[in-house]
Structure formats: C-alpha cells, structure tokens
Amino acid sequence: MRLTAPWLIHPGTLAVFDALAGHNAWFVGGCVRDGLLDQPVDDIDIATDARPETVMECAKAAGLRVVPTGIDHGTVTVVALDKPHEITTLRLDIETFGRHATVAFSTDIAEDAARRDFTINALYATREGAVIDPNGHGLADLQARLVRFIGAPAQRIEEDYLRILRFFRFHAWYADPEGGLDADGLAACAAHVDGLAGIATERVTTEVMKLLAAPDSAPSVAAMAQSGVLQAILPGASARLLTILSGLEPDANPIRRLAALSEAPDLRLSRAEATQHALYRAEMEAGTAAGELGYRHGSDKARDILLLRAALFEQPVDPDAITAAETGAAAVFPVKAADLMPALDGPALGQRLRALEQAWIDSGFTLSRAALLEL
C-alpha cells in the first residue's frame, strides 16, 4: 500500500530526509494513520536507526534547527522551513515502570513497533510513501476500524495505565462505533481500572477532553461506563444523558458534553472551561427563558444550554427557542444609567436599571427606550 499526501513532499520534510541520507528513516504513527484515512496531519513523526546525537549532527550540518526535546529517550525535534519534525531513534523496552521505561536503541523496526500501544499506531511509511506494517495487523485493523492493543493488552496497560483512556479515545476517533473495540482489550481495561488512580489529573483531563471532542463520543463513553472506567475517573457520571444529547447535536463541544456527563468533574479544567461547565449545569434545569439565555450568555452558550435541556427532558430541540436565543443575543438594552440621573444614583440607580432591563427582556426585547423610561 502506498500513502499519498501533500505533507509527504513538503520542502521542509524533504530537507529532513535529505539530512538523514545514509540512515534509514520512516514516517511513523499518527501521520501515517491519519494520512491513510485522508485526515488532516499536523504533526510529523519520524523514526530512524540513527542515534540521537547523529540525528543532531546531520541536521545541523544541513543547516536545520535542532531542539533536544527528549534526547534522553532518543527524541529530537528538527525544524525545517518552520515545520517541526519529531525524530526518534528506534527503541526497545528493557524494563517498564508505568509511564516511564528503560529503553535501548535499536536498528530493528519490528522491535520499535512491538513497544507501541495500538496496532493502528504502529504503521510506518518510507519517504516515498510505501507503507510498512511490522506487526502485520495495523493495516487490517485500520481498514476494519478496530482499536486493538499490540501483543498482550494487560502488559500494554501495565506499562502505562493511561492507555486505558487512550483505548477509548482512539475508539471515539477512529473505530467503528458499534464494534471497533477489541473484546480482549476491553476486558483488560475493566480488569485494570484501579490503575487509573495513579494517573495525574492533568493527563486524565487531556484524554477526556480529546475523547469528548470526537464527532460522536457517546458509544465510547457508554463502553467506558460498561467497563467501570467512566465511574473511576468521573464518579457519579452517567452516559445516558450524553447518549441522548449526541442525537441532538449539530457539532461536537467537549464542555457541553462534559456537562451532560457530570455535575462536578474532578478534572483540571481552565478557569474559562470550569465557568462554562458550571453555567451549563446551573441552567440545564433552571427556568430561564431562551431569549434571556441568549441576551445574557450569547447565542452559542444559549444553544448549548437548550440542547442540554432537550436531552435532559428527552425532547426535540425547539427551533423557536433557538430563534429566541439568537434574538436575545443580538438585542441591545436601550436605557443607560445617564437616562435615570440625577433623579437616581448609587444602589437605587443600579436597582432601577436592573428592573427596567428585566421588564425589557420579559417583553421579548420590544419595549422602546421611551416606553421603559415611562415605567
């Protein structure tokens, strides 16, 4: 099989391969996987049999910028024409300690492939795009839309328990929603749920948010719930509301989906994300009218809240409510503080402004400035 994609012939990428002339080098991992699926590729990973110090020497000799991003593990980043390329020497695991491992450099592409997580991530391609599948299952699994661990699933998981979450995240993005989870892998995830307790919250958060950003994350989240993984990372979470929500959504929104899953997720969200999540949870069951939602929070957030309400009450989304929210988002309150001064000032001024604003909202944003000032 041959891979064809514009990034294969990017001048910067060709310059990197030219710099490594005399050594074997291959595209590897996500760029090959996504290229075969005709999906966008941003990150270019390259595997080579050259040692990291040799990679650095070759790149510098070619006038390319080198950043020793992970040189202890055999990885350097080479920047050519402003395009970064992460280049890693072929490796063999000697001993593993969860996320960390003692590795030895290798010249055997099969040994390098054997230490990776999933078969669909252990695909390589030559400079010309000829695809190599050292494990013999990656291409078939990619075509079948199956996420499967390389080798014994339990061993792969014990090397890094975060692979449990990656298993479901890759299912959400690349697999058949109905049958794309390998049964042995799913059983191994369920059996090793306790290992997730030792994973840093930041790493869990990253995986959860990437999973929830998939076009349809509901089947993967349902499988997580079935295996006990969902409850381990989001206690009290339920996949039911997310499953209903997925049938209503026009697009993917991780925070909206997280609000459907959990009331108070123990994740490391940004301040903006946490505020948005709290808003969605508060308004899901509140009686705030659609127009006011749009006026106070903007049309996008209002639409998200209306979607969550529809899922919560298992009803279709009301198009009139969406229109009302958009109307509210575009409305501009016509009364200013100066219109009430000097008759009012201080707390009385603020109180009166809020009362007039609410009357204006309740009128469907129809009361004019003159009508409001007469109240």
What this model shows, in words?
With 375 residues, this protein is α+β, with helices and mostly antiparallel strands. It has three domains: 1-144, Beta Polymerase, domain 2; 146-266, cca-adding enzyme, domain 2 (Orthogonal Bundle), CATH 1.10.3090.10; 335-374, no CATH class. The chain has 19 helices and nine strands. It has a seven-stranded mixed beta sheet with strand order 3-4-5-2-1-8-9. Strands 6-7 form a two-stranded antiparallel ribbon. The protein is elongated and about 85 Å long. The chain starts with 10 loop residues before the first helix and ends with a helix.
CATH topology of the largest domain: Beta Polymerase, domain 2
Which percent range describes the beta-strand content?
5-15%
CATH class annotation of the largest domain: Alpha Beta
Shape: elongated
* CA-atom Rg in angstroms: 27 Å
Class inferred from helices and paired strands: alpha+beta
The CATH superfamily of the largest domain is identified as Beta Polymerase, domain 2
Number of domains: 3
Described by strand count, sense and barrel closure, the largest sheet is: 7 strands, mixed
SSE order in H/E notation? HEHEHEEEEEHEEHHHHHHHHHHHHHHH
What are the SSEs and their pairings?
Blueprint: H1 11-19, E1 25-28, H2 30-36, E2 44-48, H3 52-61, E3 65-70, E4 75-80, E5 83-89, E6 91-97, E7 100-105, H4 109-114, E8 124-125, E9 131-132, H5 138-144, H6 153-159, H7 163-174, H8 183-191, H9 201-212, H10 218-227, H11 229-233, H12 239-246, H13 254-261, H14 271-284, H15 290-297, H16 299-312, H17 319-330, H18 346-362, H19 369-374
Parallel strand pairs: 2-5
Antiparallel strand pairs: 1-2, 1-8, 3-4, 4-5, 6-7, 8-9
Helix pairs in contact: 7-9, 7-10, 9-13, 10-12, 12-13, 12-16, 13-14, 14-16, 15-16, 15-17, 16-17
